[in-house]
Amino acid sequence: MHYARLLTGTALAVAAGALAVPASAAPGPPAGGLEIRPATVTPGTTVTVNTTACGSGGTATGDASAVGAGTFTLAPSTHPESSETAAGRFEVPPSAQPGTYEIVAKCSGSGGSGTKNKKVAGDLMVTITSTAAAGERQQQLPKGHVKTGVGGALGPDPVQTAAGVAALAVAAAGGTWLLHRRARGDRI
């Protein structure tokens, strides 16, 4: 029993230590990789893609055909502090299905030696949930009436619903009474 407590305490300490890693230490895209923002989207969202893999002044051709968005261009950034970055945008089609898709960019400009034809990739996750302003995920619920093919005897009117439930209760009670009489051997 003592060893179980010791092992449990050790496991909890290790788990707490793993959770205490500061957010700044969280791994991001690899240096010279493809950064996708936001990385999790709903269909119809515009996505920004950045890379430093093509060097200063370099351009790239992006390929988002895996998600159905086709190709797009990554051009050198106009901000002096990010002159090494090529950036582009594309829109996730409204018909995109949930899943993880690989987005690829191939350097095509004169960003420096060894950068032409260099490929970088990143993952884009498409989901049917939206991200709230507070960062929480909320499920999108359906709206309107559901057409099930069942008639409208029990509609949204509470009086009709109560009458239908009462009729079902009377029928159930009557059927139970008849089965009870039959089990006793009484003739109907």
Concise description?
This protein is an alpha+beta fold and 188 residues long. It has helices at residues 2-19, 158-184; strands at 34-37, 40-41, 46-51, 60-63, 71-76, 86-91, 99-107, 119-126, 130-131, 137-138. The longest helix has 27 residues, at 158-184.
Notes on the protein architecture:
It is a single chain. With 188 residues, the protein is of the alpha+beta class. It folds into 2 domains: 28-131, Sandwich (Immunoglobulin-like); 159-188. 24% of the residues lie in helices and 26% in strands. Strands 1-3-6-5-4-7-8-2 form an 8-stranded mixed sheet, with no helix packed on it. It has a two-stranded antiparallel ribbon with strand order 9-10. The longest helix has 27 residues, at 158-184. It is rod-shaped.
What is the helix tally?
2
Radius of gyration: 31 Å
Task: State the end-to-end distance.
Answer: 68 Å
Number of strands: 10
The fraction of residues assigned to DSSP E strands is 25-35%
Biggest sheet: strands, sense, closure? 8 strands, mixed
Oligomer: single chain
Under the CATH scheme, the architecture of the largest domain is Sandwich
Q: Indicate the CATH class of the largest domain.
A: Mainly Beta
Low-pLDDT stretches are 1-30, 132-137
Please name the CATH topology of the largest domain. Immunoglobulin-like
Shape: rod-shaped
CATH homologous superfamily label of the largest domain? Macroglobulin (MG2) domain
What would you call the structural class?
alpha+beta
Mean pLDDT: 74
